[in-house]
Design the sequence.
């Protein structure tokens, strides 16, 4: 099967890793990871720096080989022919900063053998401007446009929304969802945990392994947190921090990840502090923090 | 005392970088300045530390030696080790000998950088380098701490460490102001100030900001006015000026900070990128 086939020939799995590992010398960057992305799916890949996300992506794209296991792009090895059906926006955007908006699009279209796309309203007034002079939000929009112009079946986005404001972020997610609705499979990494809700499914990597997957609720699982409401957050914070509790500021309250309310109450009581202490569901960030403290916990 | 930038107007050539912006920073609390690229966050923080001249307005800040400042772009010297960076900055503030060593080790310990004292700053991960920058800004125990995007590009786990350091400083009495592009970080601060193209979009506690939002937000699969709707997962949220105007079949939602910031940005006449 070739990637340039008609839509009818589209495979049911667009990106697949089957028990994939990658070692660099003695260092294992990716350890026994299996995952897949199907047509029309938006899959979020989460994890700390060094968790193995970028190495996994580079294997899926065929940019580096696997040490163990197989990867597939559009039903076969990720070769040059199949990569024609791929749209990739790297973290650095992959634009030529000293070319204009129009020149960048002409260049990328030529590379894929297509005609340059029409400019959306936001980019029309800046068509002749150098990319380096554009605000980051417009640069990201342009990078998307260039990656989408050849009608890819798979989209891989590495931190597509980093650094832009809420409105520009919303515009980029609009584009991502529109692609998914056309049947494009999307794999997206983000450091913004609030964006987890934009994904149909999440993959969470920690220390080279895939440690959780599913919905946000699946990832959080049974992890809980404790919310502490008090008139003196500073003392509550200091006392809990001193006691080695993973305490976080939350507005004028504090939260403790992966602890139980009784334990928190007793630490506060010992310091003579009165507070309202309630067990609450953890956030996905708190779940990641717990995993980072004990990466191999189930 | 309250540190402040009041009614600030700053112009760079033809560009109005700050347009009547007020920032208040109380001791023992964290204020988050939130916005995207070009919102004016850096200009506002540089105004507070005296690096930018105001066209109009007023700055109440302590003398430079009482400010700890982490700039957005740097924060440490890449060709120096972690220890050398700390010692160099300590020297500037007149710290030396045992005082410097104990303060340095205490801060690096809290930042989990003690194992990396002999590594060059250039060899640190992004998150570790921002933590080092924070420690350098904190070394002389300043009453005012000004942090320009300490967490941008930092992964979620390192960001939790950074927030703990920031919270510790505020709990110990420092006035802390930090800028961020992450709305969830703004929610975590005692007060937030949302900026958009040099103007104040919203400010106060999270509750103040949510309470002062006048519009209504509907959850829908098929928005009626595409330019006033944005995605939340597979569904849309759509802005309506009042609850009375919500379409009969619309499901009203309680707006969160993201809804409010997007709706206010649209109302300020942003060229609607959403409509395209």
Sequence:
């Amino acid at each position: 099967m070739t990637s340039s086939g008609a839509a009818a020939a589209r495979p049911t799995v667009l990106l697949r890793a089957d028990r994939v590992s990658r070692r660099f010398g003695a260092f294992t960057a990716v350890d026994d990871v299996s995952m897949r992305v199907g047509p029309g799916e938006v899959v979020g890949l989460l994890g700390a720096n060094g968790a193995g996300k970028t190495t996994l992506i580079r294997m899926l794209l065929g940019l580096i080989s696997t040490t163990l296991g197989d990867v597939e792009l559009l039903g076969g090895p990720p070769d040059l022919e199949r990569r024609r059906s791929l749209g990739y926006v790297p973290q650095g955007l992959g634009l030529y900063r000293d070319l204009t908006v129009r020149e960048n699009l002409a260049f990328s279209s030529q590379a894929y053998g297509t005609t340059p796309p029409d400019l959306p309203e936001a980019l029309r007034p800046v068509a002749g401007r150098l990319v380096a002079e554009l605000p980051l939000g417009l640069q990201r929009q342009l990078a998307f446009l260039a990656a989408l112009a050849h009608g890819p079946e798979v989209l891989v986005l590495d931190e597509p929304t980093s650094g832009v404001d809420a409105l520009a972020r919303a515009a980029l997610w609009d584009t991502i969802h529109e692609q998914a609705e056309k049947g494009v499979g999307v794999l997206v990494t983000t450091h913004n945990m609030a964006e987890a809700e934009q994904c149909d499914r999440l993959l969470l990597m920690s220390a080279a392994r895939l440690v959780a997957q599913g919905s946000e609720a699946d990832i959080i699982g049974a992890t809980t947190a404790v919310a502490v409401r008090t008139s003196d957050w500073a003392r509550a914070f200091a006392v809990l921090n001193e006691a080695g509790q993973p305490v976080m500021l939350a507005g004028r309250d504090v939260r403790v990840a992966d602890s139980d309310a009784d334990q928190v109450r007793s630490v506060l009581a010992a310091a003579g502090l009165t507070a309202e202490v309630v067990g609450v569901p953890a956030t996905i960030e708190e779940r990641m923090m717990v995993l980072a403290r004990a990466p191999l916990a189930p | 005392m309250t540190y402040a930038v009041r009614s600030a107007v700053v112009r760079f050539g033809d560009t109005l970088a700050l347009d009547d912006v007020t920032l208040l920073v109380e001791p023992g609390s964290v204020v988050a300045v939130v916005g995207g690229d070009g919102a004016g966050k850096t200009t506002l923080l540089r105004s507070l530390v005296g690096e930018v001249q105001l066209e109009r307005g007023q700055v109440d800040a302590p003398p430079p030696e009482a400010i700890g400042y982490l700039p957005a772009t740097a924060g440490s010297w890449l060709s120096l080790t972690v220890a050398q960076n700390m010692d160099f900055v300590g020297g500037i503030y007149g710290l030396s000998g045992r005082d410097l060593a104990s303060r340095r080790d205490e801060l690096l310990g809290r930042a989990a950088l003690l194992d990396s004292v002999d590594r060059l700053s250039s060899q640190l991960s992004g998150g570790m380098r921002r933590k080092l920058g924070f420690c350098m800004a904190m070394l002389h125990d300043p009453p005012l701490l000004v942090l320009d995007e300490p967490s941008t590009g930092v992964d979620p786990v390192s960001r939790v460490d950074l927030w703990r350091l920031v919270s510790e400083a505020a709990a110990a009495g420092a006035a802390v102001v930090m800028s961020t592009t992450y709305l969830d970080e703004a929610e975590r601060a005692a007060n937030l100030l949302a900026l958009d193209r040099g103007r104040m979009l919203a400010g106060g506690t999270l509750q103040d900001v949510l309470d002062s939002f006048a519009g209504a937000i509907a959850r829908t699969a098929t928005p009626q006015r595409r330019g006033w709707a944005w995605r939340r997962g597979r569904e849309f949220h759509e802005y309506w000026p009042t609850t009375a105007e919500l379409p009969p079949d619309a499901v009203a939602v309680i707006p969160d900070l993201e809804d409010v910031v997007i709706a206010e940005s649209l109302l300020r006449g942003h060229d609607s990128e959403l409509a395209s």
Q: What stands out?
A: Chain B touches chain A through 55 residues (CB under 8 Å).
